[in-house]
Write a structure and sequence with these properties.
- This protein has 356 residues and is an alpha/beta fold.
- The chain has helices at 31-35, 39-50, 73-86, 96-100, 123-128, 155-160, 162-167, 180-183, 206-220, 234-242, 258-265, 298-306, 310-327, 330-353, and strands at residues 2-7, 20-25, 56-60, 107-111, 131-134, 171-173, 194-199, 225-228, 244-248, 269-273, 290-292.
- The strands form two sheets. It has a six-stranded parallel beta sheet with strand order 2-1-3-4-5-6. Strands 8-7-9-10-11 form a five-stranded parallel beta sheet, with helices on both faces.
- Strand 7, helix 9 (206-220) and strand 8 form a beta-alpha-beta unit.
- 36% of the residues are buried.
């Protein structure tokens, strides 16, 4: 199977999937991004699509509105001129109609960004795709469309919108998961030295500030708590994850977080505040993860209850890693997206994709 990945940052390319993935990305510093910057590359991709060279298009979320309605005309015009002349590659996601119209290649929307909304500048992707996968997919899916127009100021009006009613069934949860290259760097099976580990900043969310105080209380009560408020080198971070029975993984800008999967890959139990999003193949509380509420000292009570049997916690960590390998590598996530596509597309699409 040959896949075209259009995105601001590539998530599937070079992540360990078996398919051939051709990236067309708009941000970053790698050679992949540099090759995508020219108008020449844009028209090469368009020609390849017209020739039917791809079996599937994965289209990431458009990171910015080309003409924000809350900005003055002159500011929008100056920004547009600057992008056209000096940074045309920043327009690729806004030029999707010119790239994709008239092409019958199946397309999936892949929204990996950390906001729980689908802005109006995403509507072309949502309308064009066969299925739309969203990382921060709200549990009440109508909330994803709030304030996308002056009339969509509450979920009652959102539910009445004919366009949204037609598209909403396409939307599915999308885990961040883990790329094969990162998975291979994370140690597993080394002796446990600490009860709870956390490394990270506190500015992303109040969830972290409240939880840190409870971790400090656990430390004063005799539990082995390893906390670093500084960003650690990746190899040291992964090792300290693997040495901990439990890795505290509070939400950041979005609820889903790389740390959830990194902790599981290290054979540790992710400790996460209760989810605010719909999830695919989630870690199960008490089996492959620990979940807690923000109220009172619930985090501390969850940790203390779990550590009454440290052997059970270590078995949960091993189960979390196995669950990750079964469902949350990028290869498994691509399989999940393809299965969803085939289920929605029926026999014709199944015949087209099976065996590729």
């Amino acid at each position: 199977m040959k896949i075209l990945e259009i995105a601001s940052v590539s998530m599937i390319y070079n992540s360990g999937v078996s398919a051939e993935v051709v990236p067309f990305v708009t941000q970053g510093s790698s050679h992949v991004w540099k090759e995508s910057r020219s108008w020449k590359r844009f028209f090469e991709i368009r020609a390849a699509l017209k020739r039917g060279e791809f079996d599937l298009v994965l289209c990431g979320a458009n990171p910015m509105d080309i003409w924000p309605s809350d900005r003055f005309f002159l500011r929008n015009a100056a920004n547009m001129l600057n992008r056209l002349v000096f940074r045309p590659y920043t327009l690729w996601m806004n030029l999707l109609p010119a790239l994709l119209d008239g092409v019958d290649t199946p397309m999936l929307g892949t929204n990996w960004v950390d906001t729980p909304m689908i802005g109006r500048h995403q509507f072309y992707i949502l309308k064009r795709c066969a299925a739309y996968f969203m990382r921060e997919c709200p549990q009440n899916i109508w909330n994803a469309f709030l304030f996308t127009s002056s009339k969509r100021n509450d979920t009652i009006n959102v539910r009445r919108d004919p366009f949204i009613k037609k598209q909403v069934e396409k939307i599915h949860p999308l885990p961040i998961g883990i790329a094969q290259g990162k998975l291979e760097k994370i140690p597993f099976g080394i002796p446990k030295k600490t009860d709870v580990f956390f490394a990270g900043g506190l500015d992303a969310t109040p969830v972290r500030r409240a939880g840190l105080q409870l971790l400090e209380e656990l430390g004063r009560e005799g539990y082995t708590v390893d906390v670093s408020m500084e960003r650690l080198p990746q190899d040291i971070f992964f090792r300290r994850c693997a040495e901990a029975r439990i890795v505290w993984s509070p939400e950041g800008v979005g609820w889903d977080c790389d740390r959830h999967y990194e902790a599981a890959a290290a054979g540790s139990v992710p400790l996460i505040n209760y989810p605010t999003i719909r999830r695919h193949a989630p870690f199960i509380g008490g089996e492959t993860a620990l979940y807690y509420g923000m109220e009172g000292d619930h985090l501390k009570r969850v940790v203390k209850d779990a550590l009454r049997d440290s052997g059970r916690v270590e078995r949960m960590g091993a189960a979390a890693r196995e669950h990750l390998l079964q469902h949350h590598t990028r290869s498994k996530i691509l399989d999940y997206m393809l299965e969803t596509l085939v289920a929605r597309g029926g026999a014709d699409l199944r015949n087209r994709l099976v065996g590729k």
